């Protein structure tokens, strides 16, 4: 089927009814869309590229994550546009069109789960499924002013999802309503309903927020006031995350840039980003180099060079990458302990303009991946929470919890959400 005109979000529309008509199911009455990286029985999974779709057969099984939400009572209404081969965080696609950012039509929607975020942000569905490897749920959630959840790595089956880089691939989801976000998460994660738990400590790394162009009054200021109202200020702690990672993750020193290459960044976090992107490139090559070299697909100009660089990259010993992952997970687990939260900017500033010049975009991307790699390398769960608008552009903040603490984090978002939105609305009046 042809792409519909609904904000350019969909690449294909169809209806998959829930597997049960019971009104008692947790997702009964809700609609959802799926990124075109998930297998759906009878449909070709397009992976954002027409040549991929042309050279692959229809799926004969539906991805378990899709089946789970169908069994939870939700109705699927179609597949959404994504960045080609999931290799970008912008959301621009020259083949199928770029979905329109509902908050800022002249800005990118974020990728690679662009259509899934736009479908939710534009109110076309109640929730949607995406995948997040380097930031592909968190980034479009931030740019489109909605909630986006990246679960703990390996917490949800990625079977039936085309792999990008298995060390980082996760099934994530978007919603406008924190209660829906929570319900979808419990279905996907097969979690029982449990009562919210008070966070023990909330860490705010001031160095990370210095990477953001958004005034602190619109980010940490909003969160701090919300935490003080709900839990009191005693659980708030200020840390320098860059120094902590530098000390506790010695393997990352292998990826430290020499000289002043990262004067606009935090060296230890830039090193995390470098290790993640190199391992991601290595795994992407293992997964897809044969198809790319055989088919020589038509790729968008901004992606083609990056994808071919991955294909032509040398074979590497991945041991040092694994050490960085192990050390970072241990270090952050020790920092947060049980029920601790790490606060971060989801992205370092406003959504980039459509077709932004590459030089400006590269500085932004470098900072973004330094922030995004914290959850990516550690495997921790992360949620992006909208904070309204600043200068007519969407603002967000992220919360991270240790690996396996998905239920705790989902509950916390639901508890915090209304208070955060009140404080964000108040801040918006005085800072815009």
UniProtKB/TrEMBL annotation:
Similarity section: Belongs to the amidase family.
InterPro entries attached to this UniProt entry: Amidase_CS, Amidase_dom, AS_sf
One of the Pfam families matching this protein, by short name: Amidase
Listed Gene3D superfamilies: Amidase signature (AS) domain
Protein name in the entry: Amidase domain-containing protein
Molecular function, one GO term: hydrolase activity, acting on carbon-nitrogen (but not peptide) bonds, in linear amides
Annotated ranges, domain Amidase: 22-182
């Amino acid at each position: 089927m042809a792409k519909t005109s609904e904000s350019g979000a969909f690449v294909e529309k169809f209806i998959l009814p829930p597997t049960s008509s019971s009104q008692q199911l947790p997702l009964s009455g809700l609609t959802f869309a799926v990124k075109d990286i998930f297998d759906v029985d009878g449909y070709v999974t397009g992976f954002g590229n027409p040549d991929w779709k042309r050279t692959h057969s229809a799926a004969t099984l539906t991805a378990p994550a899709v089946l789970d939400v169908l069994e939870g009572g939700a109705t699927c209404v179609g597949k959404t546009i994504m960045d080609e081969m999931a290799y970008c965080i912008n959301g621009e696609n020259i083949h199928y069109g770029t979905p329109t950012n509902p908050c800022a039509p002249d800005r990118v929607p974020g990728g690679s789960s662009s259509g899934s975020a736009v479908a939710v942000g534009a109110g076309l569905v109640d929730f949607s499924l995406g995948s997040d490897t380097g930031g592909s749920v968190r980034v479009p959630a931030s740019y489109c002013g909605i909630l986006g959840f990246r679960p703990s790595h390996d917490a949800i089956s990625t079977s039936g999802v085309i792999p990008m880089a298995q060390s980082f691939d996760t099934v994530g989801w978007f919603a406008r309503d924190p209660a829906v976000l929570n319900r979808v998460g419990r279905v996907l994660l097969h979690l029982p309903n449990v009562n919210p738990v008070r966070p023990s400590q909330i860490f705010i790394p001031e160095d990370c927020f210095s990477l953001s162009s958004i005034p602190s009054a619109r980010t940490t200021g909003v969160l701090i006031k919300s935490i003080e109202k709900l839990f009191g200020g005693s659980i708030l702690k200020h840390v320098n995350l860059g120094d902590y990672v530098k000390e506790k993750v010695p393997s990352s020193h292998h990826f430290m840039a020499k000289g002043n290459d990262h004067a606009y960044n935090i060296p230890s976090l830039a090193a995390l980003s470098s290790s993640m992107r190199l391992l991601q490139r290595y795994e992407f090559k293992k997964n897809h180099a044969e198809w790319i070299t055989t088919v020589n697909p038509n790729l968008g100009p901004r992606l083609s060079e990056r994808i071919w660089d991955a294909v032509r990259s040398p074979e590497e010993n991945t041991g040092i990458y694994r050490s960085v992952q192990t050390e970072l997970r241990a270090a952050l687990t020790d920092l947060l302990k049980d029920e601790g939260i790490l606060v971060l900017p989801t992205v370092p500033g406003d959504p980039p303009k459509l077709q932004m010049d590459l030089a400006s975009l590269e500085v932004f991307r470098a900072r973004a991946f330094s922030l995004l790699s914290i959850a990516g390398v550690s495997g921790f769960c992360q949620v992006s929470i909208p904070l309204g608008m600043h200068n007519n552009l969407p603002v967000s903040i992220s919360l991270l919890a240790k690996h396996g603490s998905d239920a705790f984090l989902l509950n916390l978002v639901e508890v915090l959400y209304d208070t955060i939105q009140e404080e964000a609305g108040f801040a918006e009046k005085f800072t815009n």
